[in-house]
Design a protein that fits this description.
With 302 residues, the chain is α/β, with parallel strands linked by helices. The chain contains nine helices and ten strands. It has two domains: 179 residues, Rossmann fold, CATH 3.40.50.1100; 99 residues, Rossmann fold, CATH 3.40.50. β3, α3 and β4 form a beta-alpha-beta unit. It is globular, with a radius of gyration of 18 Å.
Length: 302
Amino acid sequence: MQTGARSVFALVGNTPLLDLSFASPNRRVKIFAKAEWQNPGRSIKDRAASRMLRAALRRGQLEHDKILLDSTSGNTGVAYALFGAALGIRVRLVVPENVSAYQKNLLTAYGADVIWTPASESSDGAIRVARALFEESPARYFYANQYGNAENWRAHYFGTAREIWKQTRGLLTHFVAGLGTSGTFTGTGRKFRELNPAIRLISVQPDSPLHGLEGLKHMPTAIVPAIYDANLADENLGIETEAAQELVRDLARRKGWLIGLSSGAALEAARRVAAKIESGFIVTIFPDGGHRYLEERFWNEN
């Protein structure tokens, strides 16, 4: 791997842990969040994308001018495009057409080849198109398949979980994270199960199939990722889009923190957990910041 590429990969991880205890409805419960917009591609998806790519390079899966192919709802695609540019690898992505203009511009800036799919089919429609492309020309592509690639959850098992454990000195009592590919929750949760089985694991997803929480899946009605471990969570919380939007607006206006909608959903879930327990130390994940969603209408709603 060339020096420039190594320097980009070296920027992934070791993100700060933010104290959000001011947002806790219970003063005996602390809430902290990992600020994943500090990664080079501005989201937690850099962790999985970098590990999947490095594994593919080690295994020779990207040799002979193969094209990196995958479906994405936005952030993983940005990470693929970023690392692909650093490595000199062609990247072809299948993306729902309703991703933010900011993300579309990033994909263009990094030189990715993008196939747009109908917004009405969401991320599942993009998955089906990517699978079909690979089945038609398997020798042409390395299909990263973030929804079924074990290196996705391993990125969090070996990275995110260990960082949180070190940053909290192992004092956390609850872990809260959203479900998209499910890699973050599955990998981090599995590691915490080993480190301290008493830690409660709470997964977060939209409360309905029709939602505005980009990057999260409503598992009962979606194509369930192959890496998803349905037996891992101690509790599953469904969060309303409006509740997440309200928290995102509130944090920006009252604290000057600009977080993404999936981050707002994670914080709302952490607050609901805090309201039900007597005391504790909750850690959640803020997958990305709010810059990518500034054109959304909810900013102007009361």
